[in-house]
Amino acid sequence: MKHALAALTVALLLGGCTASGQTYGYSPNLEPIPGSITYGGQPRTKLQKAPVGSIVPHQFFDQFGRQVFETYVIEPDRSLRLVSRRWRNIDAFGGFDD
Predict the structure, then answer these.
(1) Which PROSITE patterns match (predicted)?
(2) How far apart are CA 34 and CA 64, in angstroms?
(3) DSSP result, 22-84
(4) Measured distance CA(22)–CA(15) in Å, rounded
């Protein structure tokens, strides 16, 4: 009984971790938004020298004035896959609202 309770507790904790990750933009099915590298399709230039699996960070400001941080991974066909997105609000005085 103790082992079943422990296994159930671990499963619930891991399930909570997965759900909270998607809330913050970590999702296997993220769609590009205006400003994303892959918005409107893959870039015309291929990343020839970067190894497959390399991480490419990208940041920009969206139409609402929030700073956006995106992470891409280089696929074997040299395309970019969007793997995460985070936002940071900027207040009226130029500081950050975290």
Answers:
(1) PROKAR_LIPOPROTEIN (PS51257)
(2) 11
(3) HHTTB-TTPPP-TTSTTTTSS-SS---SSPTT-EEEEEEE-TTS-EEEEEEEE-TTS-EEEEE
(4) 11
Taking the C-alpha atoms of residue 66 and residue 4, their distance in angstroms, rounded to an integer, is 45
Tell me the per-residue pLDDT of 43-86, one tens digit each, with 9 for 90 and over: 988 888 889 999 999 999 999 989 999 999 999 999 999 999 99
The contacts of residue 26 (CB under 8 Å, 6+ apart) are 83, 84
The whole-model pTM stands at 0.64
Q: What is the mean pLDDT of residues 9-31?
A: 49
CA atoms of 83 and 54, how far apart (whole Å): 12
With a cut of 50, say whether residue 25 has pLDDT above it: no
CB 69 within 8 A of CB 86: yes
d(CA 93, CA 81) in angstroms, rounded, equals 35
